[in-house]
Design a protein that fits this description.
Pfam families: BtpA (PF03437). The chain has 273 residues and is α/β, with parallel strands linked by helices. It is built from 9 helices and 11 strands.
Amino acid sequence: MEDITMKWIKEVFGTEKPIVAMCHLQAMPGDPYYDKSKGMKEILDKARHDLLALQRGGVDAVMFSNEFSLPYLTKVKTETVACMARIIGELKEEIEIPYGVNCLWDPVASLDLAVATDAKFIREIFTGVYASDFGLWNTNCGETVRHQREIGAENVKLMFNIVPEAAQYLTDRSIESIAKTTVFNCRPDVLCVSGATAGSATNPDTLKRAKSAVPETPVFANTGCRVDTIEGLLQIADGAVVGTTFKEDGKFENLTDEGRVKEFMDTVKSFRK
């Protein structure tokens, strides 16, 4: 990895091989599974619980996402962005580590939210055309990056998920080809390699092939990292995005378990030494 690349990672995350923890927000107004009887207070209370558990457990950064806005949209509605902005705004004084945002699956909305909340990074699907669970999934990276400049978000780091969950490229392309052309054409700050769904393991071979194809670009393991696999993944990857394994009993739908976070981060910190 070039020194300049390592420099920005250390500047943003405070360490090499950072662990970016997911703060999964509950279904919000407009989402099919929003609990109207409990309202926004319940969403905010659970977000605060998860944020504080992640911070006390020692993660390097946190990323807020509308993870329970299932089924996802590729053009997020205004009410979702507004609710996320309110939640992050109310939590802001309690956030002690770098943070990013992810409006699934809408890069323009993610950028808008980042600017509104002073987030340092976003993760999204910026490139490619896919057959997905959400229908035919198209992107326009050129328009997205131009929007980034128009709204003054040029300092927001862009994490490109190049193996989208629940989706596959419409043409048969190798991970090496995808990584190389994405880097050449779009200049991502990070490439993220995922499994099939949230919590599904990132394939180490796919991760290794992506990193080998673009050795000077940071590559993160994006899903399915566990305490028993993270050391092996970090031998290949330049960092990781972690969510499900931090939950109680390691189940996607549960709240964050501080003890599981600490055990995981103790392993990571020992590896980094």
